[in-house]
Fold this protein.
Amino acid sequence: MKHILLTALATAAFTCASAQQQDEKVAYLFTYFTGNAPREEQICYALSDDGYNYTPLNGGDPVISSDTIAYTQCVRDPHILRGEDGKTFYMVVTDMKSSLGWSSNRGLVLMKSTDLIHWTHSAVNFPTKYPKQWGNVIRVWAPETIYDKQAGRYMVFYSLRTSDNRSFDKIYYSYVNDDFTDLIGEPQYLFDSGTATIDGDIVFNPADQLYHLFYKSEGGRGIYQATSKTLVNAPGTRPGSQWTKVEGNVDQTQKAVEGVGVCQTIDGKSWIIMYDCYGDGHYQFCKSEDLKTFTFVQDTKTTGKFTPRHGTIIPITRAEKERLLKEYGTWGNPILPGFHADPEILYSNKTKKYYIYSTTDGTPGWGGYQYSVFSSSDLKTWTDEGVCLDAKSEQVAWAKGNLWAPAAEEVRQKDGTYKYYLYFSADAGTRKEIGVAVSDSPTGPFVDSGAPIISDSPVGRGQQIDVDVFVDPKTKKPYIYWGNGYMAGAELEPDMKTVKKETITVLTPQGGSLRDYAYREGTYVIYRKGVYYFLWSVDDTGSPNYHVAYGTAKSPLGPIEVAAEPIVLIQNPELKIYGPAHNSVLQVPGKDEWYIVYHRINKNYIEPHKGPGIHREVCIDRMMFDKEGRIVPVVPTLDGPAPLKAKKK
């Protein structure tokens, strides 16, 4: 009996500890929209471990489509709140299409969720709901939600303005019904600063037992604050008289700002204050210990698809973070915004940075004709350096378009300078051919050599595509590889632009099936501890089964012995990772540390009718070897690897 009791107590303690661990907040969820075009007025998500540095989910694309929830089919200013029960989430947004004008919105949208993924929604149109008092409303801006403990209800507050200027952007509030589907009663006045007052955010500070209202006043510059012991005024007192204005600015900048959001940190020791520097292309973050003094932390630059506007954040648990990553991915992978494929990674000894060149994806028929190049110091944060090669321009006179699957090499010259060689396949009019372009910089612009360097198949079939170039560290000789349905290799002349035709060798690994190592395309060669490793892609690029296999050789031109367990990288449907293949490999300079860079099919385009083969995204993960030198199967991840320390120049 004693044993049973002790076991029960231990089990209960373990269960309690597990529950506490699941409830522990470990990250922050950022909800925002991205711009003023209709396609940008939708709800997006980003995640952060520290509350200041965010990575967009879902590749930066919306997670909720506005056309399904709003009268205007556009929404802005999302505010998210965790409910009093700890497991229900409430979001309110401005129902507005800004292209119709800044005085064109008539309502808001109420949303509710228990998992942060599936949301119920209800749009409230003020002229319809309140035809007498608010029939001529022209602004219902920036709604937010807070729980009023005295009333025992959730309150939504927002700024209102009418066409006759009877109400000049004053903050009003309404309570919400139990289902969070409608507002109760007429809007009630809450606060104004004496001039147009918008973008209110209210938090309760346990330390001073006060409600803190942050707002933008159009009569001054920046973000201001007022405090109160209660959310609403006591009966018989003047509406709004409960609030006391606090002197001074909250924001720590001279720039135009709006959309303040305030959130207590995970440890409860301080507050994060964030606001949109909407005219300067970034968010600014500040910190406060007491909501009285505010310290600048950082400007967060917004680039690519990550251009957040007027959003808010909440702490989330580990389980919630994992659920979001499983559904939307993109914590670390994919590493590039938008659709890209066939990635080639290069480390530059000149700049001490990493570079990725890739096929521009997302166009029918794999019709991308430009290469963009992305740079990084840590393999985690990538900067778009712009277009480095355009097949429809004078850069490549012999090509008609369709740039595919680049390869890049850095070569140190005798005088200590560097040349960069970018190899590519392009549409020459009737067939695919391989060329090379040269630059003094890894970011280009690259100048084509003037003519293709490979035009014919050594086996009489297949396309001349998927080029790879490898410089043997033992002999310093360069080699080139290519093929589609066959693998060919040859030595290059020292000029890096001429193929030694007498060395052309067919290297196609023999045998195998689509389930293991049947060669399709995408050769990549590396050298490690006396062994040449050949990696290649199996099956079709649009297939979920598209994956990477490998073999080894004793020389750069084979023959290749297929590994006993040849699969290097393959899909993980449980994480919605499909078709990871066509890779390149990076060795961190001076270390036996390796990374595989590859593309995968975007999970939203996996169905055949959506064109999975042209909707691919670039990812990176660690690649390791066992004691016998065999490649350990790579487990594709949503997080990607930890960032590397930047190399010193």
Remarks:
- Residues 1-19 have pLDDT under 50 and may be disordered.
